[in-house]
Design goal:
alpha/beta, four-stranded mixed sheet, 6 helices, 11% strand, disordered N terminus
C-alpha cells in the first residue's frame, strides 16, 4: 500500500484495504467523518505488527491483514457477529500438522467501521487497532478468548 511503513523482511504478509472507501465521506452510523483515512488505518495496523518481537513476525509468515468496513454477508451468514472488530481466519499454528496440507490461507480481518464506531477519538482508535491486531495475531498462535482476556487483549 503506498505510503505504508515497511515491516521486517521476515514478515511477508500484506496489509490491504479490500474495499474502496471514500476517506472524506461521513460514517453512516455516527454522522461524523472517519477518524483515520484508509492509508492511516493500514499504517497503524502495520505499526502494531512491527511492535511484535522478530521471532513472532517470522512465524507469521505470509499472513495477510485485510481491512474491510464490516464483515461480509457471507461471514455474517456463517455466524460472525456483524459488529465484530476483527477476525482471524485460518488454522492456528498449534493445530497444524504435516498431514493437514498446505499452504495455509491465514488472514486477519480488521473491520474499520466497527472499530471507529466504538472509539470517540483518533488516539482511542489507534490504540484499539493495536489491540485488535495483537488479539487476532494471538489467535494465529493458538490463544483462546479466555487466555486473551487474562492477558488484557480482549
Amino acid at each position: 500500500m503506498p505510503g505504508s511503513p515497511t515491516l521486517s523482511a521476515t514478515w511477508t504478509g500484506t496489509v490491504a484495504s479490500s474495499d474502496e472507501r471514500d476517506p472524506g465521506r461521513e460514517s453512516r452510523r455516527t454522522g461524523r467523518s472517519p477518524l483515520l483515512t484508509p492509508d492511516e488505518f493500514a499504517a497503524v495496523a502495520e505499526k502494531a505488527l512491527a511492535e511484535l518481537p522478530g521471532e513472532l513476525l517470522e512465524r507469521l509468515g505470509n499472513v495477510a491483514i485485510l481491512i474491510d468496513e464490516r464483515p461480509s454477508a457471507d461471514l455474517v451468514a456463517d455466524g460472525i457477529h456483524p459488529g465484530v472488530l476483527g477476525l482471524y481466519h485460518g488454522v492456528p499454528l498449534n493445530r497444524r500438522s504435516v498431514s493437514f496440507g498446505a499452504p495455509y490461507a491465514d488472514t486477519i480481518h480488521l473491520f474499520s467501521a466497527n472499530l471507529e464506531r466504538v472509539c470517540r477519538t483518533r488516539e482511542e482508535l489507534i490504540e484499539r487497532i493495536r489491540i485488535v491486531v495483537w488479539h487476532e495475531t494471538a489467535h494465529f498462535f493458538g490463544y483462546t478468548e479466555a487466555q486473551l482476556r487474562r492477558m488484557g487483549l480482549a
